[in-house]
Amino acid sequence: MDAQTGNMEDEFNAMAPSTVEVVMGEVKKRLGSALSIACAVDGSQMSDRAMAVGLSLFNNRRGDKFTVIHISDATKTYLSKHLLPPHLKNYYIDMAHGARVTAEWLCREKEEGRSTCECLTRLADKRGVELLIMGSWGRKGEKLDVLGTVSDFSLRQSHCSICIVRSTGSSIGGMAGGSGGGAGVPAGIVSARPAKYLFATDGSHAAHLAFCFLVTYLYRPTDSIYVVMVTSSDGTEEAKTVDMYKDYMSKHKINGAGYVKCIDRMTMTVPEGIVEAVTQYGCDVLVVGISGYGRKKLGSVSTDISNRASCTTIIVKDSREIVRNRYTAAGSLSLATEMQVTPKTPQEDVI
């Protein structure tokens, strides 16, 4: 690039709005003012925790929609009564009512030939869910270095953004009451404690999209956002990107700060650096965007973070990018078949 061309680009960039401003307009145009939130439940303690997080993110004033989704399996005849759909419905709807949220109960029997994971993601996609919340593990128990089958599959295959809730993370939606498994007294009021978000960026469009999603739909005036960019370089160029976010937050009176975290690639990976920053800055929730979408359905960094993070993690997806890639890989006919909305069957219970 010659000097004249470089000067022209500098002049153009000075006149053009920031990338974050441009993406913010894109997000608001595509998603609208309200958010469609769904929480997948199975009667486990992690489901209770996921519900608490989901209810804390719900905003009634802007007209959000909250749906509780359960995929039942009639072949599991050994399940206790309190884990069956009728009891779960009462338990989770009461939990939402205690948080002053009107929730829709959506229960569907697992389809023959499909896994619980597939049924859940298909149902969420067909219902237009924009943020699907679930526990990192279900009734089988939690492992800290991996995800459960359902959460891992949903993270990779769903069109919507995913919130993975872990028992080891600081709660952004602590509930009063409730003992897990739907067996105890329904939980009560959602905690209004301010949340600390760690937003990890790599400067990509996917990262800008995640930041705009966070600011528009999750952030509250009492919350704070810490922007972090992890790099193995000296951080000079990365600082420019972080400053762009800081300028945006300052302009729009968003509480927060921005940092460049330099690491030694010989001793630490980027995902490890991001996870370490969560503890370093005392954050409750980690937010990242998918970058490098490909055959694995999820960028390698996003995959690694999802497994390593011990806190609640929100992976923001660009649904248009996902559909575009699936269209390219599968062709228009198969994609149209997959995305068609099937009529409600007697197995589906919507209240």
UniProtKB/TrEMBL annotation:
InterPro entries given in the database record: Universal_stress_UspA (IPR006015), UspA (IPR006016)
Listed Gene3D superfamilies: 3.40.50.12370
Pfam families in the record: Usp
Residues annotated as domain UspA: 37-166, 198-317
Protein name from the UniProt record: UspA domain-containing protein
Source organism (scientific name): Volvox carteri f. nagariensis
